[in-house]
Amino acid sequence: MTDLTEQFSAYSRWRSHAGEAVTRLRSWLARNDVGDAQSDLRLQYLLDRLRDDKLTVAFVAEFSRGKSELINAIFFGDHGDRILPSSAGRTTMCPTELQWSKGAVPELRLLPIRTRARQAPVSELKRQREEWTIEPLGAVDASSLQRALARVSETERVGAEEARTLGFAVDSRGDEGLKPGADGLVEIPRWRHALIQFPHPLLEQGLVVLDTPGLNAIGAEPELTLSMLPNAHAVLFILAADTGVTQSDLAVWRNYVQCGATRQRGRIVVLNKIDGLWDGLRDDAQIDREIGRQVETVAGTLGIDRGAVFPVSAQKALVARIQGDRPLLSRSRIPALERALSEDLLPTRQEIVRDDVLAETREASAKTRTLLEARLSGLREQLQELTDLRGKNQSVIEYMMRKIRSEKEEFDQGLQKYYAVRSVFSDLTNSLLDHMGLDTLRDETRRTREAMLESTFTRGLREAMESYFQNLRANLQRSTAEIAEIARMLEAMYKRFSVEHGLKLSAPEAFSTLRYESELDRLEAIFNRQINTALTLVTTGKQALTQQFFETVAMQARRTFEVANQDVEQWLRAVMSPLETQVREYQIQLKRRLESVKRIHEATDTLENRVEELAQNEAAVRALIAELDALEAGIAETLGVPVAAARERDAVRAAA
Known about the structure:
By secondary structure, this protein is α/β, with parallel strands linked by helices. The chain has helices spanning 2-31, 37-51, 67-75, 122-125, 142-149, 160-165, 201-204, 215-219, 222-231, 247-258, 284-302, 314-323, 326-332, 334-388, 394-436, 438-454, 458-501, 514-530, 534-539, 542-551, 553-601, 607-639, 643-655; strands at 55-60, 96-99, 107-112, 133-136, 155-159, 185-189, 191-197, 207-211, 234-240, 267-272, 309-311.
């Protein structure tokens, strides 16, 4: 526990220092008036992400595998008692999140199960406090937490039809769903979701613990399988040594944890309850061999490496922590699991955050450097022109004025083409947002809903849902073509201004819709596995199926398109920003050059005074570039990346 806490603390400090480095860059850009609104906004978004960064660890298992006890052992052994309810039978009956945010109030929030009857996912209801049953946690001690958290295991008995309406599968034999009792009623969870907020060292540093229910309940909340589990940074799948891998365990693993042929990073298998082998009749060597055989069997059944399976005794680990028994803690093997958890989770997350910070800060720095270098180049050109005028007569000065005026006229002609490109850019942008925009998505969602409700046969329902994915992909493909056209047009304009006017412009940054297409592929795979099956289509009513599709799949698709819209709008602003900035800077430099020569020609200023003023301005710009270098080096040092490596990494990421 101590090592895990220390590593989380180290990551939290690293993240805080990264935020301080980004703040220094943002303040410097504003103070020296060398940034722009787009860069400032992106750096603020980056600071918000660093501040709100969370690490989600999800625990998944069938009931009676010791899942809640494992959470107690890993995270809450320092409370001196169990925090999560842990007893024989079902304990966690609904998805339960344990978290804490700065400024939050200790409380238990419970979402009634009947909110499933409305078309509102949990993520939306989290923003509607009035929908929840809320219990304040006055004293944050073990007994108070136990009493409050015991509520997540509450159930109620309802008729089979109502259970089906709420999304639960009902089966008279209990093989494929909940089994009705002798009175015809089935037992369902009282709550749909639970949020527990209380201050704890790990939760304060951004850890979110997600405790999930068993197979029947987990499958009844598709948002859990479509969003919460796939987005968790680590998923611990718990088995019991006394049962091995049962059919229901295998179903949970294949459908909700692994979800693919290759192992996903951050997916760890825990073989719990190995203390059942400590019967006093076998020595340690025999016990170790038996555990080894069980690990081999589990790895073979799940199709994973043996090293991804961790045998532990959560119950003995918790006892050892409470009693301070180091030998028992070691025998429980929980430290090996905690090392794997921290090594699999924290470095991966830190790498993602590091790349994100480097990319955003380097982009802001690069834009500023280009601006400063353009300004420096203009000052040097003015300085050279005025230095060359020393000892020259008025006719030479008049010639210089005509030359600068001619350059200005040529540039003004180039601006007409620039404004024409901006007009075309605006038209293409509108067309792009028409295809990728949320209005188009809403229209597609409405058409699909109408088609599903009008269908009288299973085939019509299936075709409507499959067409939904096809049409969304077609919109993304049309968007890709328009993005390519925008990029080609801007690249040509960048080259024109670089060649004709000496502006320092590199090719505009590329943009790809591949990540959104991949997310649609993932959603469709889950849809085919959980909804688009003969059994589901035949046994689920049209209204219930339509509601399930739009509460889960369509809602996730909307989130994907919301992210796509934010990203593409940010890209559109970013690709125009360098050209706009340098055009504005070049105009300013031309104006200053002309004014300098004009003032000297009219004898309102001396040549030497102007040369000295330009030399001072040049030194000031060089000082700003040196300060920018120092800020970049400071950010790289804070992130633990050499400056050269940071620049190389960003170059590779930009090329990709």
